[in-house]
Amino acid sequence: MKYSVSPVVRVAITPKNPAELPKLIEGMRRLAKSDPLVVCISDEQTGQNIIAGSGELHVEICINDLKNEYAQIEIIRSNPIVSYNETVSIHGEQCMSKSANKHNRLYCSAEPLSGELATEIESGRLSLNMDKKELSKIMVNDFGFDKNDVGKIWAFGPNDDGPNMIVDVTSGCQFMNEIKDSCITGFNVVTQNGVLCDEPCRGIRFNVHDTNLHPDGIHRGGGQIIPASRQSLYGSQLLAAPRLQEPVFLVEITCPNDVVGTVYNVISMRRGNIEEEHQMPGAPVAIIKGFLPVAESFGFTEYLRAETSGQAFPNCSFHHWEEMTENPVATTENRVVKIVQDIRKRKGLKPEVPGIDNFRDKL
């Protein structure tokens, strides 16, 4: 089954008694079987066990089930963490990278894909397995793609169904079929762990513009091409003005007319915005619809109930990803820079985003 919500709220959990870790992992496995929406991740690198759910309440219920039923142990939990996505905002210049043996060069660039196209691929309505003519028709008519480019899409990613793509726009380059698989492997790694803070990428189109490969097949094997393609794609992501996307909830609030003003204040304090408000016919009750960033949704229900003395009932569901306007690689401190630093710190990476010189090679 495909669900329209995605697991955007994460909580890291550890057993109170470290000796009970195997019980916890077994419990997480059983939880993942019982609830198709929850995602349980055991990260080998950082040693974290993470439960991801579609909202604060969902994660609460999952942890409760884990504690009382599936693992039956005491659990310590972290504060909820929001998953972000990485994207790019302009068509960047090309980034050239050489392979380790200096015999192969790759030139790549990155540009943004439209949000509608990303959503279509995520929902599975567009895939590379469908009829080529049908795919070409949709891409050209609905999304303004060049007809020649559609036939040259190498892959969607990560894992063939993610909302990013890699396109071969080279002309007259040799051996492209031989390096295709290596480039796709590098592309999958890059889209799973973006350059800013190792979060997944969304809505990026990577173009391979030109290659300069060694004529002898031995010198352009996967061991040479995969790291070079990874480096070139990371570099092109940095050159295309990278941005973060945050998940946004659609929040529906039912409340009496006399507390509508308070509800507006609470939502605007939480960086939310109101989309529409309409009256319920025959009753002094208003229904307010608005958008609320997931990062601001923790404790939102309690806060709203406290402000309106329990008269407003919110209902949150995941709606879309929204691009954050601030520059995450700016030299001055801003909100997104701080988010990126926090995520990198949490994942055990260096606090600052690596510079373009780490990825771009000189001729």
For the report, how would you describe the main beta sheet? 5 strands, antiparallel
CATH architecture of the largest domain: 2-Layer Sandwich
Which structural class do the helices and strands define?
Answer: alpha+beta
Fraction in beta strands: 25-35%
Task: Based on the model shown, name its key terms.
363 residues, alpha+beta, Alpha-Beta Plaits, 3 domains, five-stranded antiparallel β-sheet, 10 helices, 27% strand
Could you give a quick summary of the protein structure above?
This protein is an alpha+beta fold and 363 residues long.
Could you characterize the architecture of this molecule?
- With about 375 residues, the chain is an alpha+beta fold.
- The chain has helices at about 20-35, 55-70, 115-120, 130-145, 145-150, 175-190, 220-240, 260-270, 300-305, 335-345; strands spanning about 10-15, 40, 50-55, 75, 80, 85-90, 95-100, 105-110, 155, 165-170, 205-210, 240-255, 275-280, 285-295, 315-325.
- The chain folds into three domains: about 10-80, Elongation Factor G (Translational Gtpase), domain 3 (Alpha-Beta Plaits, 2-Layer Sandwich); about 85-240 and about 355-360, Ribosomal Protein S5, domain 2; about 245-325, Alpha-Beta Plaits, CATH 3.30.70.240.
- The protein is built from ten helices and 15 strands.
- Helix 1 packs across helix 2 (about 55-70) and helix 6 (about 175-190) packs across helix 7.
- About 35% of the residues are buried.
- The model has no long low-confidence stretch (mean pLDDT about 85).
